[in-house]
Amino acid sequence: MKMNNVDPQKMNALLNIVGSKLNMSPEQLRRELEAGKFDNAISSMKPAESEKFNAVMKNPKLLDSIMSTPQAQELYKKLTSKS
Q1: SS3 of 20, please?
Q2: Rg of the chain on CA atoms, in Å
Q3: Residue with the larger pLDDT of the pair 56 and 38
């Protein structure tokens, strides 16, 4: 899976969020996705969640739109804070 067309900051935010849901590090999730192990990365998600994730990953404009929302930015801050 190519992630070159997506803003790196927004991709990292998405990997952090999804990785936390899957109990894996963002780096591990990225490696699996880049290696084409998409099924392994989303196998523990509910079907509706995995469909949404697939749709976002295939559409950089949708990812940009989602990650630009105040809610996504606040969630990213919470997930990445060192408190």
Answers
A1: helix
A2: 12
A3: 56
HSE value, Cβ hemisphere, 13 Å, CA-based, for 6: 24
Per-residue pLDDT at 53 exceeds 80: no
Copy the structure tokens of residue 70: 């105040």
Distance between CA 28 and CA 41 in Å, rounded?
A: 9
Q: Give the integer Cα–Cα distance in Å for 39 and 62.
A: 21
Average pLDDT over residues 1-30: 79
Query: Is the CB of residue 20 less than 8 Å from the CB of residue 28?
Result: no
65: left (phi over 0), alpha (psi -120 to 50) or beta: alpha
DSSP string, 36-57: T-HHHHHTTS-HHHHHHHHHHH
Q: Who has greater pLDDT, 79 or 49?
A: 49
User: What integer best gives the mean pLDDT of the chain?
Assistant: 78
